[in-house]
Design a protein that fits this description.
Blueprint lengths: L2 E9 L6 H12 L4 E9 L4 H13 L3 E6 L5 H10 L5 E4 L11 H9 L4 E9 L4 H17 L8 E8 H7 L9 H8 L3 E8 L11 H15 L2 H30 L7 H32 L7 E2 L13
Parallel strand pairs: 1-2, 1-4, 2-3, 5-7
Antiparallel strand pairs: 3-8, 4-6, 5-6
Helix pairs in contact: 9-10
């Protein structure tokens, strides 16, 4: 029997990209000796995008779709697809053509050579701003300095995982997910494949600056406790500074050089107040993550997809 390949694709308002991406995947898979399923996970898209996805599922036997009850975010949608993927190997990728389907045969060839995880490395993205390129570069450098597991700079969510690695990944159920870090923690036999990401085929990126900042913060808090240690050292240095300053005040008192004034008090109050607020902010972020975990809510909810009638109501 042919080996089964599941291609997991989270989508959010990608009506223009879905048909083109589906065709590109079909062309990449056609000459290969595999059966494949293209599993779209709709992350709470608008009705026009869902309509295109329903038509694609209806007309293409290789395509399946899962519909989330609302927009949970890219990492949750990706998790949903991985949870429902039943192939011998699972490929995760975005549906905007910035993860080129033409690379799929290369990933599968390396898998057949014995690698459990084939991770693509984005060398650059065509048309991306200098700010995003530089911020990504130095973010991963900083993250690897403090992370307990290696995280590949330039790593993307375009990767192939063997069935064994997929089952291992499913055991990680934290809510503030940074799947790139989780994959780094899995181990297994991994290999990297570099690529240049083209511009989006259509539409605009849904990954806003706010979402990018939240994603980056999850990567730090989910993979390292170094910020907590840094806050401890800052507190220790503040204490040593205050002891040294106290000694200076005593010395000046004996020398008779003290001058009444409020400037020193204001500077000290600002310094220690700012230090305390920063430390409390770091602690608050970790406590917030703990709070979300202990509630034990599901990572996502799916819904049975029913098209809207002309009046905008669900068909019954």
């Amino acid at each position: 029997m042919k080996k089964q390949i599941t291609i997991v694709v989270p989508v959010y308002n990608e009506a223009e990209n879905i048909p083109h991406f589906t065709q590109a995947v079909a062309e990449a898979m056609a000459p290969l000796p595999y059966d494949y399923t293209l599993l779209f996970v709709d992350d709470g898209s608008r009705e026009d995008s869902r309509r295109v996805l329903r038509e694609t599922v209806k007309n293409n036997p290789h395509v399946r779709a899962i519909y989330l009850s609302r927009n949970y975010g890219h990492q949750a949608a990706l998790t949903c697809g991985i949870d429902n993927a039943d192939g011998d190997a699972v490929i995760t990728m975005d549906g905007d053509m910035q993860h080129p389907p033409a690379l799929i045969p290369r990933l599968l060839a390396l898998w057949e050579q014995g690698y459990d995880i084939v991770q693509t490395i984005r060398e650059t993205t065509e048309g991306v701003s200098a700010f995003k390129r530089l911020s990504s570069k130095y973010y991963y450098k900083a993250l690897n300095l403090i992370s307990e597991v290696p995280i590949q700079p330039g790593g993307s969510d375009f990767r192939l995982m063997d069935r064994e690695a997929v089952l291992a990944l499913r055991q990680y159920r934290e809510h503030d997910r940074f799947i790139r870090g989780i994959v780094g923690a899995l181990g297994f036999r991994q290999v990297q494949v570099p690529f240049v990401a083209p511009e989006r085929y259509a539409g605009t990126s849904k990954f806003s600056l706010k979402k990018m900042a939240k994603f980056a913060l999850n990567g730090i808090l989910g993979n390292s406790i170094v910020p907590l240690r840094i806050s401890f050292y800052i507190g220790l240095l503040s204490l040593l500074f205050s002891v040294a300053l106290f000694g200076h005040v005593i010395f000046e008192e004996f020398e008779g050089d003290t001058v009444p004034g409020w400037s020193t008090l204001v500077i000290l109050a600002a310094f220690f107040g700012g230090t305390q607020l920063m430390v409390l902010g770091i602690l608050g972020e970790y406590i917030g993550h703990i709070f979300r975990e202990v509630k034990g809510r599901p990572l996502y909810l799916t819904q049975k997809e029913r098209p809207l009638d002309e009046s905008g109501r669900k068909d019954v």
